[in-house]
Amino acid sequence: MAELHDLTALEQAAAIRSGELSPVELTEHYLARIDRLDDTLGAFLTRTPDLARKQAAEAESAAAAARREGRELPPLHGIPVPVKDLNNVAGVRCTLGSRTLTERVPTVDDHVVGKLRQAGTILLGKTNTPEFGLSCHTENDVTSPARTPWDLTRSAGGSSGGAGAAVAGGLAPLAHASDGGGSVRIPASACGLYGIKPSRGRVSTGPLHDITGMSSSGPLARTVADAATLLDLLAGPMPGDPYTAPALPPGETFADYARRDPGRLRVGVLTAPPIPGIEVHPDCHAAVAETVALLSELGHETEEASLPADESTREAVTRVWAIIAGRSPVPPGSEDLLLPLTRYLRECAAEVSGTDFAAALFAFRMLGQTIADDLMPPDTGYDVLLSPTLATPPLPVGGLRNDADPAAEFASLLAFTPFTTVYNATGQPSVSVPLHWNAEGLPIGVMLTGRYGADAMLVSLSAQLEQARPWAGRRPDVW
After folding, report:
1. What's the pTM value of the predicted model, to 2 decimals?
2. What is the C-alpha separation between 431 and 441, in angstroms, rounded?
3. Of 98, 135, 160, 183, which residue is the catalytic one?
4. Which residues of 48-67 are buried (b: 16+ CB within 10 A; e: fewer)?
5. Which of 45, 89, 104, 84 is nearest to 334 (CA)?
6. Is 31 in a helix, a strand, or coil?
């Protein structure tokens, strides 16, 4: 018989609405799995069993009242959704993955957390993240590394590696994640999951906004429909937001688009990284080629495309990432507790002038304009860009971290993720789809990117690919 964690989040939610399943029973099931498996997977930085049980009891009471009164419940009412430890939950420790903040307890929810509370979801805990989210592996000095459940010697990626390990390992049905340079899509690829980086402004980054416009919260899930439903809960403008993505038509949801045919699309295929000197692993090329064949079978038009490989992209990313590190909330006198990579980037930040920072952001805006004008103009351009998500399969734990030479570590991070950061710079919606596993049984994601604001189209295309080549039934041994 299927166990509770075999069900999708939407199947669990339907059972809660009907009274067949209690949020309390579901929460206890996941808490038991966390107790048994998390020391191996490294998914959580902070566990919140007491809060989870309290929220589950409240959700059960609300579900019972809704059944008596014939009222609808939010679509993920009673479903556990862990939150990444870069986001504040009032009353819950938030370390940002740093030894400098292990006692930090915020008093105010981030906007996305408030939306999850209003939706009746359950907080199992805060998921693992690298220090201040600065790297694409999840290896900090606060807890053990996040590992992909497909091979426990390998990294779950980052910076939402804990969220990826939790969902792929069956410790949560889906998870909140965030993406400032690929941090939803990287663990989606490494963990065999579906992940969405929404358009800039689709999901609020407040109340402590990302000044660069690079970052957005998004869902990690086993199915497109689950991810689309979580995106519905997270999306929508909040007071003070500096960006707002185009809204869906009135009454429509991203979950609706997971049930719609995307129509015939024109797909540009990018296999060469936009950063010079980076090689792409044959397994990642194979994943793209397999996806091109599937897209053609489904009636889409595919064509080789290219972005100019430009050293200025690497330079701009380095400067902006240094400024992000420089603005991290490090308590005075605790610099010696920081990881070498963080210290290195903060030292780099001191060398970035205001003019340099403005020039880097301008380079990002011009990159977005180039893609819009040359590759994706309305009516005549590509509707979708397809590329590898990563340049290699999942790497061994420790394969990217280099405390002895943090400059070399940062260069290796860019070489691992040369495709993802482009769309943080441009603000376009981008997803990683788990269509391919290599001969070693490791998941290899492919990335689909749309025009700014075209998140719904990507959901429809992803759902079409999922229907043609279902992946949710593939489960790692720890499952």
Report:
1. 0.98
2. 22
3. 183
4. beebbbebbeebbebbeebe
5. 104
6. helix
Query: Strands, DSSP E only, in 147-193?
Result: 174-179
Which long-range contacts does 13-17 make (Cβ < 8 Å, 24+ apart)?
13/73, 13/75, 13/76, 13/77, 13/78, 13/79, 16/59, 16/63, 16/73, 16/77, 16/78, 16/79, 17/63, 17/66, 17/67, 17/73, 17/77
Residue 307: partners with Cβ closer than 8 Å, 6 or more residues away: 270, 272, 274, 370, 371, 375, 422
DSSP 8-state assignment for residue 172? S
User: What 8-state DSSP symbol labels residue 278?
Assistant: -
Alpha carbons within 13 angstroms on the beta-carbon side of residue 1 total: 2
pLDDT digits (tens, 9 = 90+) for 429-468: 999 999 999 999 999 999 999 999 999 999 999 999 999 9
The catalytic position among 98, 155, 159, 412 is 159
Among residues 22, 84, 178, 197, which one is catalytic? 84
With tokens 């593939």, the residue in question is: 474
DSSP 330: P
Give strand pairing partners of 197: 430
Q: Which residue is it, tokens 């989040």?
A: 9
Cβ neighbors of 6 (< 8 A, separation 6 or more) are none
Token pair of 297 as six digits:
């079978």
Catalytic annotation present for 54: no
Is 262:457 a contact under the CB 8 Å cutoff? yes
Q: Please report, as a single letter, which amino acid is at residue 262.
A: P
Among residues 205, 208, 237, the alpha carbon closest in space to that of 218 is found at 205
DSSP string computed for 437-474: E-TTS-EEEEEEEESTT-HHHHHHHHHHHHHHS--TT-
Specify the length of the chain in residues.
479
Summarised one tens digit per residue, pLDDT across range 207-238 is: 999 999 999 999 999 999 999 999 999 999 99
| 359, two tokens | 């020039």
Query: Is residue 159 annotated as part of the catalytic site, yes or no?
Result: yes
398-429 tens-digit pLDDT: 999 999 999 999 999 999 999 999 999 999 99
Which contacts (CB < 8 Å, 24+ apart) does range 464-467 have?
464/261, 464/262, 464/298, 465/291, 465/294, 465/295, 465/298, 465/433, 465/435, 466/194, 466/223, 466/224, 466/433
